[in-house]
Each structure stands twice: as C-alpha cells, then as structure tokens.
Amino acid sequence: MSSAILHHTAGTILLIGASRGLGHAMAAELLKTGWNVVGTTRPVEGRTELHDLADENLDRVEVETVDICEPEQIAALRARLSGRVFDILFVNAGTANARSE
Predict the structure, then answer these.
(1) What integer pLDDT is reported at residue 44 of this predicted model?
(2) 43 CB contacts (<8 Å, ≥6 apart)?
(3) Residue 89, beta-bridge partner list
(4) 20 to 30 A from 92, CA-CA: which of 6, 36, 37, 55?
(5) What is the DSSP string of 13-33?
(6) DSSP codes joined into one string, 49-84
(7) 71/61 Cα distance (integer angstroms)
C-alpha cells in the first residue's frame, strides 16, 4: 500500500471485502494511521474479524454487507451509503460464487 495513503489522516475508505485476511489487515493498518473504515462482509459470513475491529473502534469502523456477485445487493449498498463521501474505494473481494462457471 502506498505510503501516501497510509500517512493521509481523517479520510474514510470504503473497503469491499474487509472481513478477513488481506482486507481485514488493510482495515487494521489504516485505522492505525488515522483512517476511518467502512468495510464490507458477505451476508452469509455472520460475525467476522471486521466485527471485532468495529467493536474495538466504535466511532471509526462501520460494517456493511454486500455480495458483489449480486447486482441487487450492490444497488442496496449504494442506496444505504447514498450521500456519503469516500476518499478511497478499494475492492478486495472476489467476484465468483457457487453459480459461476
């Protein structure tokens, strides 16, 4: 990740796919450098590491749900976040599901 991004403060990132692994690590690192995070999980995941991060950072982490393979879920996320301004959109989520061929 660019050092310019890490040193920017008071910004907000929309991080698609932040529930675990690389996405969760990015969210945790960005929090350390002053960023606010809106991170997504898939609806089927239940409680994730992102939820734990949100519990530890009540005013700085928000959890949303979206499966980016489902257009109606993308539209619903867009509607929920309508009017919000994000400094960065980072898509860390894959685009395959059980129906993909």
Answers:
(1) 87
(2) 65, 66, 67, 73
(3) 14
(4) 55
(5) EEEES-SSHHHHHHHHHHHHT
(6) HHHHHHHHSTTTEEEEE--TT-HHHHHHHHHHTTT-
(7) 25
Please say whether the beta carbons of 71 and 46 come within 8 A: no
**pLDDT at residue 6, rounded to an integer:** 53
Please give the structure tokens belonging to residue 54: 């949100």
Closest CA to 44 of 70, 15, 73, 67: 67
What H or E segment, with its residue span, contains residue 5? helix 3-7
Strand 88-91 relative to strand 61-65, pairing: unpaired
- With contact defined as beta carbons under 8 Å apart, do 81 and 14 qualify? yes
* pLDDT, mean of each 10-residue run, the chain (101 residues): 56 95 95 96 91 95 95 97 96 68 50
Ramachandran region, residue 48 (left: φ > 0; alpha: ψ -120 to 50; beta: rest): beta
